[in-house]
């Protein structure tokens, strides 16, 4: 990388100082008052023949008055945000919404229109659940009622059918095998309801393929927290009552690589999922 000379740095400082003043509609007098820097010093720094940088104290006072960072003012970065602001933008916490469909999810899906969505769900894929399963799972759930879950599911199905969104899912194979055995929270379902759910999922896999693809991975080899990646702009980890939302490129790329690893090592690939689900439904007694 070519080394920047002092005169080049001084020129860049002058240009950025002028730019920040224009954007904030500040004249030299106002900037001097807000920063505590003499007006004559401000005028000198803006002069075309200024080839020296001011002291660190003066740079800091001007940056504070202008609401930018000293690094940006000196041309060391293109980002005007402070480290604290960058951190706040890179990670936010969004409360999970109960009714009728999660407003956060709907907004993120709309903002990611045309982008690939990657999802490792909490249990079964939400938009693939039958009425019986939703009534069981949400009967006593504090965050959402069965009716609200049904409304959310209908919204998602309509969105998939209308847009043919590029949607990829990764679910542990063992989770579906536990469901077929009616283990854990699904113990109250009868055999007919379990078969109905598995066949419903198989039918949706057929209907939406290849735009929507369900992969099954081996939980003995890999693990994933509930995560959704919305294109290249956002990645979300679900913790139950809230979402941890990552907005920086590095975080999104990391969670994208994690999801893609689940798919690469899947024990059942998407084109086999419908057949595998129907075979599993045949084992239900």
Walkthrough of the structure:
The chain has 285 residues and is α/β, with parallel strands linked by helices. The protein folds into 2 domains: 6-80, lambda repressor-like DNA-binding domains (434 Repressor (Amino-terminal Domain), Orthogonal Bundle); 88-282, Endonuclease, Chain A. It has 13 helices and 7 strands. It has a 7-stranded mixed β-sheet, with helices on both faces. A hairpin with a 3-residue loop joins strand 6 (234-238) and strand 7 (242-246). Helix 2 packs across helix 4, helix 8 (131-137) crosses helix 9 and helix 11 (191-208) packs antiparallel against helix 13. The longest helix is centred in the first third of the chain and has 18 residues, at 6-23. The radius of gyration is 27 Å and the shape is elongated.
Brief write-up:
The protein is an alpha/beta fold and 285 residues long. 51% of the residues lie in helices and 12% in strands. The protein has 2 domains: 75 residues, 434 Repressor (Amino-terminal Domain) (Orthogonal Bundle); 195 residues, Endonuclease, Chain A.
Report the helical percentage: 40-55%
Oligomer: single chain
Number of strands: 7
Average pLDDT rating? 87
Placed side by side, the strands forming the largest sheet appear as: 1-7-6-5-2-3-4
Global shape = elongated
Radius of gyration: 27 Å
**CATH-defined fold name of the largest domain:** Endonuclease, Chain A
The CATH architecture category of the largest domain equals 2-Layer Sandwich
| Poorly predicted residue ranges | none
Largest sheet: 7 strands, mixed
């Amino acid at each position: 990388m070519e080394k920047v000379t002092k005169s080049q740095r001084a020129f860049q400082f002058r240009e950025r100082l002028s730019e920040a003043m224009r954007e904030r509609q500040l004249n030299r007098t106002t900037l001097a008052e807000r920063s505590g820097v003499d007006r004559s010093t401000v005028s000198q720094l803006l002069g075309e023949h200024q080839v020296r940088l001011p002291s660190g104290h003066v740079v800091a006072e001007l940056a504070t008055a202008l609401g930018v960072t000293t690094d940006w003012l000196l041309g060391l970065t293109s980002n005007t945000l402070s480290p604290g602001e960058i951190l706040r933008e890179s990670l936010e916490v969004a409360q999970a919404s109960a009714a009728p469909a999660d407003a956060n999810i709907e907004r993120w899906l709309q903002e990611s229109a045309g982008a690939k969505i990657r999802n490792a769900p909490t249990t079964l894929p939400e938009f693939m659940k039958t009425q019986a399963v939703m009534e069981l799972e949400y009967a006593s759930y504090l965050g959402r009622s069965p009716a609200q879950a049904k409304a959310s599911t209908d919204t998602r199905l309509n969105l998939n059918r209308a847009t043919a969104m590029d949607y990829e899912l990764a679910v542990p194979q063992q989770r579906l095998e536990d469901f077929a055995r009616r283990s854990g929270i699904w113990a109250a379902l009868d055999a007919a309801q379990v078969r109905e759910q598995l066949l419903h999922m198989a039918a949706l896999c057929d209907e939406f393929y290849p735009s929507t693809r369900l992969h099954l991975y081996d939980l003995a080899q890999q693990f994933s927290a509930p995560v959704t990646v919305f294109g290249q702009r956002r990645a979300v980890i679900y913790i139950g009552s809230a979402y941890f939302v990552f907005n920086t490129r590095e975080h999104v790329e990391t969670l994208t690589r994690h999801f893609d690893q689940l798919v690469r090592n899947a024990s059942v690939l998407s084109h086999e999922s419908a057949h595998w689900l129907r075979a599993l439904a045949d084992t239900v007694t």
